[in-house]
Amino acid sequence: MPQRRGALPISDAEVVNCPDTYARGVPYDCLDRLRTRTPVVWLDGRFADEPGSWAVLRYTDVRRALSRPELFTPVPWESLHGPRPDPPDADAESTAMLIDMDPPARALLGRVRRTGADLVTDVLHEMPETLRNTVAGGVHALLRNPDQYAKLRAGHGDEALIDSAVEEMLRWWTPVTQIRRLVRRDTTMGGVPLLAGEQIALWLTAANHDADVYTQPGRFLPERFTADTPRHLAFGHGVRGCLGGVLARVHLRAMLAAILERPGRLEPAGEPVLTRSTARRGFDRLPVRWRDD
Ligand code: HEM
Q1: Which CATH number covers residue 262?
Q2: Is the pLDDT of residue 94 over 70?
Q3: Which domain holds residue 129?
Q4: 182 burial class (0-12, 13-18, 19+ CB within 10 angstroms)?
Q5: Does residue 293 sit within a domain?
Q6: Which of 199, 242, 243, 251, when mutated, tests ligand 1's pocket best, judged by the most ligand atoms within 8 Å of its CB?
Q7: Could you tell me if 289 and 115 are in contact, meaning their C-beta atoms sit under 8 angstroms apart?
Q8: Residue 181, domain member (yes or no)
Q9: Residue 204, beta-bridge partner list
Q10: Under a CB-based contact definition with an 8 Å cutoff, are residues 194 and 277 in contact?
């Protein structure tokens, strides 16, 4: 059938590579098709204004690449955690928040009023970007899945459930979409020859939603993580994996516990605005309010 002028089909690779896409949500359908057909695929980076790279989409390939730092080395200019938050003012509690292993989660949650607040700019603004995005992504998961939220509220004393829910929030949301590596010498991956000097982009988002590893990967299932569940890759993996993972988990756990313990519940107070980025997944705005039961 002839194409109408100006209506050329857009390929899955182009959709995945375009920051505008992510302002509407992660294109899991495109990532799934690519992962199945061409699990290592060239993305030219032109829409995101980035150098071209081989996108690695399967969990096993991403994990294997992260386990071989001598072959795939980090690119020195990559910034994963976003800009530093503004220096704190006289509010000593907020200083504590960045480094404290006993975060002031209840005080933060207290900023969510019955009349509403923006989780990003009013409540979590002092947090480093990756942490803020994960808390916001986790809250979004609760709001989008009221049945799971209710189950968590009923089981909030269950330590194993809360630990699993934190891991599921990290997997389901995956705030660092992709991390880059430089190929040190010629090799192959997924049947594709990779040349020394080329870049690969390890798509953590695609790996953490790989149906060969996680059943129903698109569903937010707080009880998913048991001792046998493969570890998600939201913090990377191996010797270059996230050094702040322990601290991040402490903060996420404290925030989730505070949400579940406070009488009443969170509810949406407006449309969320997603961040336009192929690299980091988060919100520009996430309006919420507190509702007493
Ligand atoms: C939920 C929150 C966070 C997420 C999802 C996250 C994710 C990541 C990822 C994906 C990497 C890259 C691993 C790699 O390249 O193989 C990384 C590295 C790192 N992260 Fe985090 N991170 C988080 C919070 C933090 C915090 C709170 C700190 C500091 C207290 C931190 C410190 C670091 C450091 C020092 C590195 C190593 C950087 C390097 O190798 O150059 N992260 N993180």
Answers
A1: 1.10.630.10
A2: no
A3: 13-285
A4: middle
A5: no
A6: 242
A7: yes
A8: yes
A9: none
A10: no
Pocket test for ligand 1, best of 64, 75, 81 (most atoms within 8 A of CB): 81
Nearest CA to ligand 1 atom 28: 244
Residue 260 belongs to some domain of the structure = yes
Please give the number of the atom of ligand 1 that sits closest to the Cα of 204. Answer: 10
pLDDT tens sequence across 64-80? 999 999 999 998 767 77
Q: How far is the CA of 165 from the centre of ligand 1 (A)?
A: 20
Continuous segment of H or E residues that includes residue 60: helix 59-66
Using the predicted structure, report yes or no on whether residue 218 has a pLDDT greater than 50: yes
Q: Over the Cα atoms of the chain, what is R_g?
A: 20
Number of domains in the chain: 1
Q: Is residue 116 part of a domain?
A: yes
Which residue's CA is the closest to the ligand 1 atom numbered 1? 131
Question: pTM (2 decimals)?
Answer: 0.93
Q: Using the Cα atoms of residue 77, residue 80, residue 85 and residue 87 in order, give the sign of their dihedral.
A: negative
| Matching residue, tokens 């909030």 | 156
